[in-house]
Amino acid sequence: MIVQSKRSQTARAGSILLVLLLALASPASAGLYTDSCGMVWADAASPFERNNETAYNEELMASYTPIMANLTDGPPDFSSMTWSDAFRETCAYMEERYAFTEWRGVDWDALYATYAPKIAQAEENEDNAAYYRTLREFVYAIPDGHVLVLSPDDFGAKHADIGGGYGLAVAGLDSGEVIVTYVANGSDAERAGIRFGDEVVSWNGRPIGEAIDATSIIWTPVKPSTAEGILLHKLRFLTRAPVGAGATVGIAGPADSAPRTINLTAADDGYETLARTSIFLGREVNDGAAGSSAELKAMIANETVTTRTLPGGIAYIAVYEESYDVYQPFKAAVEDAIADGAPGIVIDLRFNRGGDDNLAAAYAGWFVDRPVFYEYGTTYDPGTGEQAVLWESWTQPRPDRYEGPVALLVSPYTISSGEGLPKVFAESGTGAIVSWYGTNGAFGMESLGPTLPPGVMTAFPQGTSLDANGRIQVDSNASQVGGVAPTVRVPLDRDTLARAMAGEDVQLSYTVDWIRAQAESTTAEPSAVPTQAAAGWVVVLAAFAVVAVGYGRR
Question: How far apart are CA 75 and CA 93, in angstroms?
Answer without folding.
Answer: 9
